[in-house]
Give the backbone structure.
Amino acid sequence: MKKALYSILIMLPSCAISQTFHEGLVFSQTEFNFTRTENWVNHIDSIEVTNITEKKIFLLKQFDPSGFELRYPAKSIDPGKTEYIEIAFKPKQKGKFNASFPIYHSASPTPVTITYSGEVASFDEFAEAAC
């Protein structure tokens, strides 16, 4: 029993790390979990993307997935530098949601997956207001 408890305690910190390492880039966050939200207001989430290699890496632009607006850095991410991806999630209806989309970059043929999940209980009257 002690060995099992010890194993769980050793593994816990590695599970709690929120950063995702992917082929030379470190993404500060890849999952956005919203609890049941009353008065949902659209906002912008940011992901820090840090280049830990010795070469420039480009985030490859794509069509925005349904319900999302994405903003990428206009230039490469230089070695040792951090840039930001901005994401606006705009659900169209109340209820639970679970949506994912890929982010591709020049250092890998496989994408990083960004996931949004949660539940919209109601929308704020200013949910669609452009600020």
About this structure: Residues 63 and 121 are 28 Å apart (CA to CA). Confidence is low (pLDDT under 50) at residues 1-18. The longest strand covers residues 108-120.
